[in-house]
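Entry 14. Ran structure prediction on the chain below.
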Amino acid sequence: METEAKLSDELEDWARGDGPKTLGSLVALFDERSFAVLFVLLMAVPALPLPTGGVTHVFELIVMLVALQLIAGRRMVWLPVRWRGKDLSSTTRGRFFERLLRTIRWLERHSRTRLAFLVSGRPLRSFYGLVVLALTVAAFLAPPFSGLDTLPALGVVVLSLGILLRDSIFVAAGIVIGTGGVFVEITLGSLAAKGIGSLF
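Output, structure tokens:
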């Protein structure tokens, strides 16, 4: 009986292999799982509390488009030709990708299939897409260099890993982290607006 390949091993083989490191090649490799895999890989960048320039907004726009497809019930990811050719080599090299792989492997060791029926089925796929879309919009709208996009983005990553590992505990944790991040973003944004308003 063959052992199912681990997500971390599949990602590492893709990143270290000779083939192109593009969005299109990632979608082709992971098939229906490519929704969640794209969410993990693209949202892991804004989930880091580090300045990343404008690349995070590009990734977030891609995630929004893919989340809308999930909400609509698509089984396979569709991307414009220009986006399918987007090179991810810079994302799959260096310490960022190594840290991501270590995190995924840690979660794989500590996860198990728990209440798998809660993370499958058409209605739940649409709900998953709605949550990802909401958290990604929150990350996108966070003020630049404020770090407020970190928690919503991290919520998407943890939630998506929970879907891939079929572990409802991680799914719930991702929703809690992301929702908490949105609350912090709204609260601090309101305080900042009031502070600026009091100066005039």
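The CA atoms of residues 47 and 153 lie 5 Å apart. Will compare against last week's run tomorrow.
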